[in-house]
Known about the structure:
The protein is built from 15 helices and 17 strands. It is of the alpha+beta class. The protein has three domains: 13-199 and 263-289, no CATH class; 294-411, no CATH class; 420-481, Orthogonal Bundle (Arc Repressor Mutant, subunit A). Strands 1, 2, 6, 7, 8, 11, 12, 13, 14 and 15 form a ten-stranded mixed beta sheet that branches. A hairpin with a 4-residue loop joins strand 14 and strand 15. The chain is elongated, with a radius of gyration of 30 Å.
Amino acid sequence: MNLNNLESVIGLEVHIQVNTASKAFAPEAASFTSTPNEHISPVSLALPGTLPVMNKKHIEKAVRLGLALGCKINPRNYFDRKNYFYADLPKGYQITQDGDPICLGGSLTLSGNRKINIHHIHMEEDAGKSIHDIDPLNTLLDYNRAGVPLLELVTQPDLKNGEEVEEFVNTLRRLVRYIDVSDGIMQEGSLRCDVNLSLRERGSTELNTRCEIKNINSASNAKKAVEQEIKRQLSILKKGGTIAQQTLDFNLKTQKLTVTREKEDAHDYRYFPEPDLSPIDLNEEYIEKVKQNMGRLPDDYFKMLTEEYKISEYEANILVESKELSDYTIKLIKSSELKIRTITNFIINKYLPEVKTGTDELESYPLNSDQIIGFLELIESEKITISSAYQNLLPALLKNPEKDPKKLIKDLDLIQDFDSNALKSIILDILEKNPELLKKYKNGRKNLFGFFMGEVMKASKGKSNPKEAKKVLGEILNKSDG
């Protein structure tokens, strides 16, 4: 193997927590962020005599994701038991799909029109949670998450590097939020990523021994983990070693990889058909009904913004980050006579920095379209200076989102003053207070014009029209210059 001509081969297994009200096969709430062991039942605890019942919404959301990714929807679905023993797995097995996953094929497109092929998507249930840092002697178990519905998306080994992995996770996360399959909050475990990585010589089609990095909880951490694993495998090969099939953990605190165990093969799980669940048949009418109720996808919004409204691809990518923001932007454009550029510039450069909280939660926008249009019209009509609008009016409007900006501008006394006599009086007073600077200006220091303008706007509390102030100041300085 030529170590100077190696490439990484990466496949992903992404676990997506489905946002259904109840668990996959049990009646209690699919919530695991509340009091430990609050949402449990005899079914999720696997007490003797209990039987699972399939959640219809779990199926619907799986079909929805499959359609969005161009997958073939399997008309007949079976479930299987994946057998392994962990303390946080009450039944001693996981109900999943092994032989007949609900979605087959499909792809997700990255930038540059690069398609990452999907192997399949299957339905399954989550395990509980083991807690190691509360009791010094014992591991505590929280079964709230046991039985929460999941979709596992498995890609083909088509990804090449950490940047592509990061983009794939972010793009998929945006998609599942758009189509209301999951909230996609990665730090809460709603979307988790396992990375399978191996190295091979460029041009080869052979797949070499792979290692798996488990349960990565952010797109940026997935990128870092991939980059570290490539370095780790290269280091082993350069020392003459061989790559062992292992499972690794990416430590969030140290940002380092550690080997946790030897990687299992599929036969180690002793899959067999789930005897307590009947096959599920999905006809074309049902699939078409799900498709009709999906709404627009991110690519649809992107095409509308760039082709119909002529917004740049860079700005469109920002505006389609969430369905809420896309709808919000389009509503503003359709309900206003303002220039599209005025609206997009405001949203991207002024509004989003004010309202984004820095969390991973779905965005909410406190100002409705009428308020934003009213705010921008005040600027366009020059009833308020741009600086005063963003420094004074916008913060006040965000604190009082129920108020009309045209009324608020009066309450705050921010309306521009066009009184030329008052403006001349302000300018003359400033020049009188700065005789030395005025002298320097007369002697050629024309860059002092900016200083005088700043003093005029400060003295008028931002209420003077900048264009008018600049004109009058120029006339007075040129007159005194003469």
